[in-house]
Amino acid sequence: MTGERFFELWVYLAATPLAGLTITLVAYVIGYAIYTRAKLHPLVNPVLIAVIAIVICLRIGDVAYGTYFTGAQFVHFLLGPAVVGLAVPLARAWPTMRRLALPVAGTLAFGSAIALMTTIGIAWALGASPGTLASLAPKSVTAPIAMGIAERIGGVAALAAVFAVATGIIGAAVGKFVFDAVGVRDWRARGFALGLAAHGIGTARAFQVNPEAGTYAGLAFGLHGVFAAFLLPLLWRVAQLLTGKL
Amino acid sequence: MSPFLAGATWLLLFQCAGELVSHALGLPVPGPVVGMLLLFVALRIRDRIPESIGTAADALARHLSLLFVPAGVGVMMYFGRLAGEWLPIVVGLLVSTIVTLAVAALTFAELARRAENAQAAAPESES
């Protein structure tokens, strides 16, 4: 095969949805295999490995994100039914969970406020621009919901999705060390905190470590999404008034 | 029919219902989240989880993190912006996530301990 012919084939293949979809799955399968080899070590995050590998490949092949996404959207789309499906672990855990209504509600409200205030407080103090702040604000909420919130408060939806994914990866990576450091051994508390702070990626990590933690992570992940969608725009207003600008 | 196919169909139907409700009422909550709430209510009313829905939901949940990969790759569009503001972004994300994890875990553990002590002290008043 001549170089020119190969290049033609490459241009053809890179523009089809098949390429974006395949590279997404291949990168994740490799990332997950490394994660398994590392005995599910929290710092070896499969999402992070997959994202880095794909970005490098796209950069080398000079493929635009939009072209990649025509294939990757089929994976992205499954977030919808996956979120709907979180009703199942919730319904399973409901009989034991209803006795914990107060801890759930209290932690949700307090944790959500802490997540928002610390992010924008720190980023604002370090000089982040208003558009970046608004995109950072919903970082602990799952990507599809974070995108909607960011748009409503003047952020960039796609950037909010990136920050949400980054937060999920960070949470899944450091969760174990943070919980051990503050001495929380209760799997329900560890799971709930992971789901609240690190949404779906934290929830995935919690399910891999302990089923009870996973269930409470799913609960926190779902509730935080609903809670933030309604209340975060209001809290954002409060933060704007407090700082006097933004 | 395979349980997975039936379950996946149900999940999509509930997602559609969620989208309809969210749009019709102008809710700020995305359709899938409304769909999750609707499915939860339906499962609670039936008081058991059909095998099909359980199978499909578990299959999706098992590799939930895969579904975030396409959004994560979006980072490549913002390298310029990230390079200019990397310090507030990195410190903000890192510190806030650590603090939130610690605060949420401590709060939940403490509130759960109190709730269970209270329930143990006043046994079986209801349910």
Tell me the layout of helices and strands.
The complex is a heterodimer of chains A (246) and B (127).
Chain A: H1 3-14, H2 17-37, H3 46-61, H4 65-77, H5 79-85, H6 87-97, H7 101-125, H8 130-136, H9 143-152, H10 157-182, H11 187-209, H12 211-243
Chain B: H1 3-24, H2 31-46, H3 51-62, H4 69-73, H5 79-84, H6 86-121
Helix pairs in contact in B: 1-2, 1-3
The percent range for helix content of chain A is: over 70%
Radius of gyration of chain A: 20 Å
How many β-strand runs of chain B? 0
* Biggest β-sheet strands, sense, barrel of chain A: none
- How many DSSP H or I helices of chain A? 12
In percent, how much strand structure appears in the residues of chain A?
Answer: under 5%
Structural write-up:
The complex is a heterodimer of chains A (246) and B (127). Chain A contains 12 helices and no strands. With 246 residues, chain A is mainly α. Chain B is 76% helix and 0% strand. Chain B has helices at residues 3-24, 31-46, 51-62, 69-73, 79-84, 86-121. Chain B contains 6 helices and no strands. In chain B, helix 1 (3-24) crosses helix 2 (31-46) and helix 1 packs across helix 3 (51-62). The radius of gyration of chain B is 21 Å and the shape is extended. Chain B has 127 residues and is mainly alpha-helical. Chain B folds into 2 domains: 1-62, no CATH class; 70-127, no CATH class. The longest helix of chain B is centred in the C-terminal third of the chain and has 36 residues, at 86-121. The interface between A and B is large, with 114 and 74 residues.
What attributes does this structure have?
heterodimer, A: 246 residues, mainly alpha, 2 domains, 12 helices, 83% helix, globular, B: 127 residues, 76% helix, extended
Task: Give the structure's gist in a few sentences.
The complex is a heterodimer of chains A (246) and B (127). With 246 residues, chain A is mainly α.
